[in-house]
Amino acid sequence: MRVSGAEATGASYAYKASLIGSAHRFELTDEGLSWRIGRRSGLWRYDEISAIRLSFRPVSMQQHRFRADVSHASGGCLAILSTSWQTAALMAPQDNGFRAFIVELHARMARAGSRAELTTGLGRRTYAAVLAFLAVLTVAMAGLLIRALLIGEFAGALFIIGFAALFAWQVGGLVRRNRPQGYSFDRVPKALLP
To answer: TM segments (predicted)?
Structure first.
């Protein structure tokens, strides 16, 4: 695949959010963030962008997927994903292009004097609900493990330990990366970029 000059500098990015939908296209111009999604299009000046939220959002077809939600002062929101549908069974990562585009977007917004709110992860309430659910699940699993050990079900205890380790490995990265916090234009969090 041939890379254009705009793509090489991170000034443009495109992905397919679904297999049958049209491509989502973005370009960083001198005037602002130009976007085209299907028949809709627009140009958001860099100082009109009110917020960016970076997050880690794995899905079953792609366990290494990142998302940037860009909000406009008038209330609009654009989702930019680090993966693109290729076929019915393949969602391809676009790590380098996504990273370059997001870093360049932050640089241009900083040069334009943007006062956008820069946040990471899930919303605070959602994150608190996830932590509460994990705490309840941990207590339940610990109770099951203690019960299995007390009645001598060592195979069951090993299963619980194995399941807990797999669950902690799968969910731990998601929870750790999606902790809500703020950041600055010159310190874009590397954990939320591919």
So the answer is: 127-148, 154-175
pTM as predicted: 0.80
- Give the CATH number, domain containing residue 56: 2.30.29.30
Domain of residue 92 covers 9-120
* 182 assigned to some structural domain: no
Q: Which residues contact 103 (CB under 8 A, 6 or more apart)?
A: 10, 188, 193
Number of domains making up the chain: 2
**HEC string for 77-140:** EEEEECEEEEECCEEEECHHHHHHHHHHHHHHHHHCCCCCEEEECCCHHHHHHHHHHHHHHHHH
Q: Is residue 187 part of a domain?
A: no
- pLDDT beyond 80 at 95: yes
CA angle 109, 115, 119 (to 5 degrees): 85
